[in-house]
Amino acid sequence: MSLFGEDQDASDSLFGSMPIQRSRDNPIDDSDVQQVSGVWAQSTATNADLNLPEGYSAAKILQGVKVPQIYIDAYHFAGPVDGSVNTGALRDLLSKAHLSVDQMDTIEGIILSDRHAGSRITQNSWNTAMALIALAQQGDTPSLDLIEMRKSNLPIPHLDLPSSAFRLKPDANDSEIGQKIQITTPLSKSPELHTRSISNNTNKGTNTSYRSEPIAAPRPIRPSGASALDPWGSDRLSSLSLHSDQSFPTPMLDGPRDDDTVFITVMPEKEGVFLFRHVTYLIELKGVNKPKVVRRYSDFVWLFEALIKRYPCRIVPVLPPKKLQVNGHYLSSDIKFLERRRRGLTRFVTQLLAHPILSRETLVTMFVSTPTELSTWRKSTDLHIVEEYEDKNFDTTVPESFITNWSTYESLIETTRASLNDAIAYYAQTCKLLDRINTRKMHIGIDHHHIASRLRYIASSNQQLYCISTSETGQDGGELERIADGLISTAKVLDGFQSISVDESGAWDIGVLEDLKRIKDNLLAVAEMFQRFDKAIANNIPQLERRVESNENRLRRLMESSSHSESGSNGNANAKIASEISRLQKLIENDTKQIALLVEREWIIKYNLFKELDFLQNSEFDISKALQNWAWERVKYAELLADTFRNLASSVQSMPISRE
């Protein structure tokens, strides 16, 4: 019901007389615009938003399924590079299928909505696109649930491909998808700010590796009109040409950065028995001649707890959660959640290896380099974890100057602690806002692509739309052709805008966002260290001191009574007094030693805390480096967009505005 009690459907038409019936083939159907409008209030779309079955994705649904040979032939004909093709190849494929604009948008939306796999299209996603095309050609509504129903008998699409695209026999490499994982190796070194390389593994889906290290220093920027050899570190986007036949470049969202040293990859196959299967992670260290190791999430938890027990007052990095509750539902196997957890585990290992003390810990070294399963290693090793303070000598650990100036240091520590919670909150809010802007940027690019597809439809229909004016004059001066050329050129530029927007979105995702999350995680680890410090510093020294004082008073009274009774003849009483005096002296001596040990332990803990906060000061410039890199990237993409629309302006200038 509307505000005035009327049925809303009655006012859908312009004059309120009848509802508008939208055809599936209507090129100006704005349903996709309505779907994207919600992104201004929320972050990313979920499978439920796209009407996808729970747990399905374009990159996963046909993993391990034998597909028709035409799927493989068409993929190789598209010219994959490093195991994937760009979105331009997908658009070419859709154009060869003779589908309506609405059908093409639906298929492209399903494939490109799988954001966790990046914007490159793997062979898994390509196979899904082929199946969706075949379903659309058969008159069905393309969807993943139909593909799931027809896995055993996938439909064959009809495409306008040359005969040379088909092979009589498949290559030996064309096996089922996702059989085993491969480790990504970066492409040639490039001074680009956040370089992304394309994975060699075509079958990983979400199993893209992410490498992490302390934030790199920014590189100087060059204008886009600089040397053609290296204007932006050999960035492919700098070669955009409005009239080029080459497809617009498509970026990587989750590719590794060249300055990263830790590789953590989600293994494609879960381990364990039915109903108790779990995700495992492959860990590899860049530049280290050590074997790759496989660990599960519970192994990370064990390492974290062991380090907390061994180093309670050290900055032990925080772990990402095992589960996340959203609207009452726990997400532990959701693809996007698994990707976030993988990145969190990468930050955990990276910060461990960057710590001067924790990086030399035997448990950490074993965890990242011993290929043996962790549970097996723990059973075969006599592991006894004790606090680090038990191994330290007070005289050689704590300098005298620290004790002398403790009041000054204590004031500085309290100042740091008081500002910690606000800093964590501000970093978390900044990450959330940047992620929201980043998501809007990506969807703005998608909307530009939708506009481009409509402009192509307008260009193809103008000849029929304005056929009366041309028939009356009896001649056509080529105005419609030039208008059509301008529309096509505009559509190409808008497609290029989408590619640049998605590429910039990916650069933010693995660049400034990951840098800020690393800083936030480090501050969270410091906050947890302060909580452990409060527990570790607590002791019973006041109780021991009161007991020593009480025993000393009793001892003094006994000694006085003993001196008075020496002149007496009661030998048994004197013996009892002497025995009690000896017992009290031992108690006082033991308590005094215990107090001294506790005082030394307290100073060692305080000194460790101070040294950890001193180590924290090394990260004060991380925010500067992150924002500098982000600023250079924004200038870079702004120049690319300026060049793109400058080409558009010159192209549309040739479009006629009258018949004169």
UniProtKB/TrEMBL annotation:
<dbReference type="InterPro" id="IPR001683">
    <property type="entry name" value="PX_dom"/>
</dbReference>
<dbReference type="GO" id="GO:0005829">
    <property type="term" value="C:cytosol"/>
</dbReference>
<feature type="region of interest" description="Disordered">
    <location>
        <begin position="1"/>
        <end position="36"/>
    </location>
</feature>
<dbReference type="InterPro" id="IPR028662">
    <property type="entry name" value="SNX8/Mvp1"/>
</dbReference>
<feature type="region of interest" description="Disordered">
    <location>
        <begin position="182"/>
        <end position="228"/>
    </location>
</feature>
<dbReference type="Pfam" id="PF19566">
    <property type="entry name" value="Snx8_BAR_dom"/>
</dbReference>
<dbReference type="GO" id="GO:0042147">
    <property type="term" value="P:retrograde transport, endosome to Golgi"/>
</dbReference>
<dbReference type="Pfam" id="PF00787">
    <property type="entry name" value="PX"/>
</dbReference>
<feature type="compositionally biased region" description="Polar residues">
    <location>
        <begin position="196"/>
        <end position="211"/>
    </location>
</feature>
<keyword id="KW-0653">Protein transport</keyword>
<feature type="domain" description="PX">
    <location>
        <begin position="259"/>
        <end position="374"/>
    </location>
</feature>
<keyword id="KW-0813">Transport</keyword>
<protein>
    <recommendedName>
        <fullName>Sorting nexin MVP1</fullName>
    </recommendedName>
</protein>
<dbReference type="InterPro" id="IPR036871">
    <property type="entry name" value="PX_dom_sf"/>
</dbReference>
<dbReference type="GO" id="GO:0006623">
    <property type="term" value="P:protein targeting to vacuole"/>
</dbReference>
<dbReference type="GO" id="GO:0016020">
    <property type="term" value="C:membrane"/>
</dbReference>
<keyword id="KW-0963">Cytoplasm</keyword>
<dbReference type="InterPro" id="IPR045734">
    <property type="entry name" value="Snx8_BAR_dom"/>
</dbReference>
<dbReference type="GO" id="GO:0032266">
    <property type="term" value="F:phosphatidylinositol-3-phosphate binding"/>
</dbReference>
<keyword id="KW-0472">Membrane</keyword>
<feature type="compositionally biased region" description="Acidic residues">
    <location>
        <begin position="1"/>
        <end position="10"/>
    </location>
</feature>
<dbReference type="GO" id="GO:0005768">
    <property type="term" value="C:endosome"/>
</dbReference>
<comment type="similarity">
    <text>Belongs to the sorting nexin family.</text>
</comment>
